[in-house]
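#lab-general

N.A. 3:47 PM
ok so I finally got the sequence cleaned up, no stray characters, all 370 residues accounted for. can someone with queue access submit it? mine expired

B.Y. 3:52 PM
send it over

N.A. 3:53 PM
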Amino acid sequence: MVLGGGEGDGTGRALTGRDAAMDAALGALYGGPGAAGSGRPRGERSAGLGGSAPRVARWLGDIRTYFPTSVVQVMQRDAIERLGLSTLLLEPEMLEAVEPDVHLVGTLLSLNKAMPETTRETARAVVRKVVEQLEKRLAARTRATLTGALDRSARIGRPRHHDIDWDRTIRANLKNYLPEHRTVVPERLVGYGRAARSVKKEVILCIDQSGSMAASVVHASVFGAVLASMRSIATRLVVFDTAVVDLTDRLSDPVDVLFGTQLGGGTDINRALAHCQSKITRPADTVVVLISDLYEGGIRDEMLKRVASMKAAGVEFVALLALSDEGAPAYDHEHAAALAALGAPAFACTPDLFPDVMAAALEKRPLPLP
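B.Y. 4:20 PM
back already:
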């Protein structure tokens, strides 16, 4: 592609066939009038996708033909950002042509209120495909990890041999150490119990739905549905901007959760935490997960007082700056430092690490900070 086509490339050869088609697809997005590499004379080149939905739909089909999925997703995001194609995603033929990914879901959710009825079902199908992919990747490991954590958190005094927690047993019997035999006599055994079917822990996911948190909203909604499917965990999901919306009754279907959000707007973390705090009935058995970049538009001091109050009551408080694969986000460093001073370090978390973070919180162990 570097050598192809234009008069200035010095090869004297033009691109043909598949190479020419690939070059045209790239040129429509990244080229411009008179750009090199088209295989046509400089004056004949005309790049760009214009404002026509059918033309964009054909281009989307072309790039899926010529490039791997990972490249297609990058080109789609670039097309939306560089060429302002967000409004064209409201066209059903456009949505049928795109390669679904988390970023596309975020864009669709931001357009949710403007979406015509003719497009809504197609959009839901696109979102559901991404959600099912995420569930397939994350659900089994999440359930296995958290079930183990819940089992271990139920300590018993007369365990069977394979249920003995040897670390805690040794610590509990150090007074019975026999120096001449260099051994500890375990008069009291400490073991892992088996979590009963009744609710053992309560988890509240409090999710910032400002526009920059789109990928985190998608992943958190999937995890919320997975947690809600576990009988031993009572799960509540709350989303917020300057208002607070409790979506717990939609947790059986993460697609319904996502379409209940409204990406964009301001941020009032204090108001959201006030709502979450009002729902806590068993502080010592509750984990609150705040997912936010911490750019607070509400009352900062009140927000920090609420976190301190919850922790003093025994609540495990987890602050995630992002729940996505995109690395460290932009965030309010001052607020992050203030939370860390309260014993609630704020950090970005990938979806693959999230089950381990939740397991540590449920067991009241130090969090596995990345």
